[in-house]
Amino acid sequence: METLTTYLLPLLILPISIFLFLQIHQKTTKKQETNLPGSSGWPFIGENMDFAMLGAQTYVSQRMKKYSQDVFQTSLLGEKMAVFCGAHGHKFLFTNETKLLTSWWPESMKKALLFPEFVNNPVKEVTSLQRNFIRDILKPEALKRYISEMDCMTRSHLENDWVPYREVSIFPLSKKYTFALACKLFMSIEDEKHVEKLADHFTLITNGMFSMPINFPGTAYNGAIKGGKLVRDELMNIIVERKKKIMKNEDINLKGDLLSQMLVMKDENGEFTTDMEISNSIIGLLVASYETTSSMVTFVLKYLAEIPEVYEKVLKEQMSIVESKAPGELLSWEDIEKMKYSWNMAREALRLIPPAQGSFREVITDFTYAGYTIPKGWKTFWMVHTTHKNPKYFPDPERFDPSRFEGSGPAPYTFVPFGGGPRMCPGKEYARLEVLVFMHNVVTRFRLEKLMPNEKIIFHSSPTPSNGLPVRLIPHNESVRLANTLSM
Ligand code: HEM
């Protein structure tokens, strides 16, 4: 149903859209002349169908072969777009932020996430004060104090949702864990039912925020709009309750969380941030971290289950950390810093199955790149796939090889799972800590055996294993017993 409504409904309304397209096209083509190679696809639907059917990687590599290795034009999400390719393309976009380009997010995404009064006001989406604040609280120094809390939560998650079972599906569990962790660290929400309710609303958003903006009952986009409204209402309730607690000085145990810090933050004029702005920021953080980090955790575990040599090296590194600590002692920053091979392994998983496909910008003045004119008002798109699997940058690109990250690692602008430049993902360090703490706990307790060796990868807002990555859990004491039995 979702596929039908998302991709086939546009065809039903094609005649109307052709008319509208021609009207708009006639008005805009004069202003937007370009010599960029490529195609803008079908009226109204552009190249959305190709992108959805082929998948981001095949879509971009076919067009790079056909049109240009540097940059080509397309039409996605109802916008004229220049897709910048390769390390040069990434460098150009990441280093020309604010001079030639500005941040841009699709209308469908903004309408789902933001209060209506913010949708057409780019400056107010997230103020620079909040953006700097978010960057500050997600810096390694600020996150250090969350490591023991992350470790504690991972232990109880495994105890409750893994240990009692012989077989588990990793993707739904990593989503559950990732969301619960963010709710706890950002807003001190721990009640399982409350977290579940919020997660359901968020899943509606992430399933529909990059779909065609067709707002009919049953479409993914319609679900995202509904999910966004539910999340915003809930967050406003949470903010009001928290303010009451702050007024009554009942927030002693909550002072450290992101919500309390945002509520007492003032701008240079001494003004507090509004509730709606705070809500926008928190929704932005939850959406940005939810599927991306769950996907990263899932695919790291997938490779650990698939490649025994890699698993053994990670296990050795993690066991040496266990052995250096008192029984039951929680992980610390120093322990994380020792997880060098594990992080290289996780980065290799990020290279091969990147959770985010890339991101957009808007052109604020006409400019020329690689001999092509990119007009003001166009959108640009950079994509991880133009470098991550390019043999020019990563020889034998399909091979899983964590040693690529040893020494000085990949060439600049080739490994870009978190983007680059001033807009680089501020949650990179948070994601690193989360995945390393999770790996530590899983690997030191279990070996994993995949139950569906050829499981497909499908795409929602991030790559997802089609059946949730079911695995058999083999606790270490059991695998030792098994080895002893076999050697007898
Ligand atoms: C593996 C996990 C993650 C991946 C792969 C990822 C990737 C990305 C990418 C590619 C961008 C766009 C950068 C650009 O526009 O050039 C981005 C932006 C962003 N990410 Fe992440 N992200 C992850 C986790 C997180 C987490 C955990 C948080 C928050 C705790 C977060 C918060 C953000 C925010 C707020 C932005 C917007 C930054 C801005 O526009 O200034 N991300 N992320």
Automatic annotation (TrEMBL):
It is found in: Membrane. InterPro entries: Cyt_P450, Cyt_P450_CS, Cyt_P450_E_grp-I, Cyt_P450_sf. One of its GO terms (biological process) is sterol metabolic process. PROSITE patterns: CYTOCHROME_P450. Its cofactor is heme. PANTHER family: BETA-AMYRIN 28-OXIDASE-LIKE (PTHR24286:SF53), CYTOCHROME P450 26 (PTHR24286). This is Beta-amyrin 28-oxidase. It comes from Lactuca saligna (Willowleaf lettuce).
